Amino acid sequence: MSIKIKNLKVYYQTLRGDVKALDDVTFSIADGEIMGLAGESGCGKTTLANSLISLYPPMKYIEGSVELDNEKLPIWDTDKMNAFRYKKISIIPQYAMNAMNPTRKIGKMTAELLESRKVNYKKTKPELLRRLDLVELNRNVLDMYPIELSGGMKQRMVLVLSTLLNPSLLIADEITSALDVSTQKAVSEMLVEFRNRKIVKSMIVITHDISILYQIADTILVMYAGKLAEKAPTEKIINSPIHPYTKLLISSLPKVGVKYSERKLTGIPGNTPLLLDPPSGCRFRERCPVAFDKCIEEPPFIEIEKNHYVACWKEYGKNA
Amino acid sequence: MLLAGRSMVRMLKLEKVSKNYRTGTFGGKLLPAVVDVSFNIGDGEVVSLIGESGSGKSTIGKMILRLLNINSGKITLDDIDISTLKGAKLKNYYRDVQGVFQDPFSSYNPIFKADRIFTIIRQEFFPDVKDSEWREKVDNALRAVGLNPDQVLNKFPHQLSGGQLQRFLIARALLLDIKLLIADEIISMLDASTRVDVLNLLVELKSRGLSILFITHDLSLGYYISERAIILYRGCIVEMGATEKIYFNPVHPYTQMLMSSVPRLDKKWERVEMELKAKQTELTGGCVYYERCKSPYKCEKCALERPRLREFEPEHFVACHFIE
């Protein structure tokens, strides 16, 4: 097991109380697994990513453990995490387009970055050049300023930078959402290539675009309002989802070949609950078409068949 | 009915419209953003304008809304050249044509309540309407976009969700009883679950006779909603026609590449070699897609002569020398 997360709780501190953005989350990712993380905005996707790598206030660690390659990560301690950050666990942040220092040439910036991690730039350079070839970037980008690169090129440059020290886990947070379809495809396929070449062991790919996850992810984890709803192999989530939220989410996606005149899609009625004071029990209860009395209690996240985890009272009985 | 009481068949027509932007330190260089674009939008028709970033799709929308001047060509609404409109006539044009843009949050002033956009409309266009009558008009418009007036009026923008704000803007356009809506990427900032609701709203408005120019980079959304699609590349129309024909029988190499890279839920990408964006080199006389084209028929003619848009089959036009 590459990464194991157990009962992780991370809240946001506000003047009106704690926002329970990540509430009792337990799952694991195997070696070589690309896990897609899907859900609506505000469901805790980015909170999960950030708490694994940079847990700063107003984020507040409550409890839970994170184990990477059988080693406990001190995620609550920003200084101790320095030993792991970038080397063992790395992130391509949502704002990757603007992640590079605009006043430095890219090569110089990379050197400074490596120095700060006490890694010799000269020794790493041959590998850096090989990686640039791998993502089909011209080697002379190192003598360019970030402003000279297009969005797709910047995204690929950040991909190279984030993975230069072969981290065990790479988190890619919405890295394709600002790109055009053709560049989107190229960048997504590069992520798979990096895994296949064992440059990174496993990956968490966060996106709201489930069709991209279908293309590249091995498993998909669906989150709803700070809780896990369902985790299963990609095919299962797309073709035979079990949790009512996943079902509604998948069926609301417009697809090429579906026209309003032939099949009218429907959205999910209602809004996501406020996480400042979330409702007790299943958080999807109020919008759920199949909710019943039992849903007032909180459903545990249970493995109902191999590698298929669901948190829904309605479904436990069926398979038990 | 908000859109009732119309008799004339309306038509927006673009004829060989071009737009150049000035770039460089002293504006000495010209960047052609839109090149000789011609198409029309009929009554109650939804047309998708599809292209990557930098293809000029938003520029076209802004030119129709008179937010940008055109360099050459003509845009007409019912045979009236819109660039000649001034004063009262221009105001009348805006009664008919309105736009809604990508980011609903930046369309509002955060200091004021969100329904101020309706008050402004009233001051500008309906100064004589009575209070009670106006209130009813607003309520009707909000119901038409699927909002409950009691829940959404008198709130600040931050108290409403992105989907609600976006619907507010559409309701604002409806108050004017418009004929044509320029919808520029209005879905892309919304969540999957609210996305479909806004799309369905557009479909419903269309059935009441509203024409829509639906600008998007998301091909599956374009398919869901429109009868006709226009594929734009570097300011030129490369393919245009009935939606089904373009999606299931793309002829231009660019459209084919685009269709094969759409992430889909029923089919996985085959491993194909990477397509990278060509540098924005200056447009020469040849085909705009020349540098990236992978077609086996690519030849010298493509580099020298720009292909015209020709009819490939009924309701299907392609700009490529080799469409047979």
What would you say about this model in short?
Chain A is built from 10 helices and 12 strands. By secondary structure, chain A is an alpha/beta fold. In chain A, the strands form 2 sheets. In chain A, strands 6-7-8-3-9-10-12-11 form an 8-stranded mixed beta sheet, with helices on both faces.
Question: What secondary-structure arrangement, pairings included, does this model have?
Answer:
The complex is a heterodimer of chains A (320) and B (324).
Chain A: E1 3-14, E2 17-29, E3 34-38, H1 45-53, E4 59-68, E5 71-72, H2 78-81, E6 89-92, H3 106-116, H4 121-134, H5 151-162, E7 169-173, H6 181-196, E8 202-206, H7 210-216, E9 219-224, E10 227-233, H8 234-239, H9 244-251, E11 302-305, E12 308-310, H10 313-319
Parallel strand pairs in A: 3-8, 3-9, 6-7, 7-8
Antiparallel strand pairs in A: 1-2, 1-4, 4-5, 9-10, 10-12, 11-12
Helix pairs in contact in A: 5-6
Chain B: E1 12-23, E2 29-41, E3 46-50, H1 57-64, E4 72-77, E5 80-81, H2 87-96, E6 97-100, H3 116-125, H4 131-144, H5 149-152, H6 162-175, E7 180-184, H7 192-207, E8 211-216, H8 219-225, E9 228-233, E10 236-242, H9 243-248, H10 253-261, H11 300-304, E11 310-313, E12 316-318
Parallel strand pairs in B: 3-8, 3-9, 6-7, 7-8
Antiparallel strand pairs in B: 1-2, 1-4, 4-5, 9-10, 10-12, 11-12
Radius of gyration of chain B: 21 Å
pLDDT average of chain A, as an integer?
A: 87
Low-pLDDT sequence parts of chain A = none
- Strand numbers in spatial order across the main sheet of chain B: 6-7-8-3-9-10-12-11
Helix amount of chain A, in percent? 25-40%
**Beta content of chain A:** 15-25%
Oligomer: heterodimer
The count of β-strands of chain B is 12
Beta-strand portion of chain B reads 15-25%
Number of strands of chain A: 12
Residue windows where pLDDT falls under 50 for at least 5 positions of chain B:
1-7, 271-280
Mean pLDDT level of chain B: 83
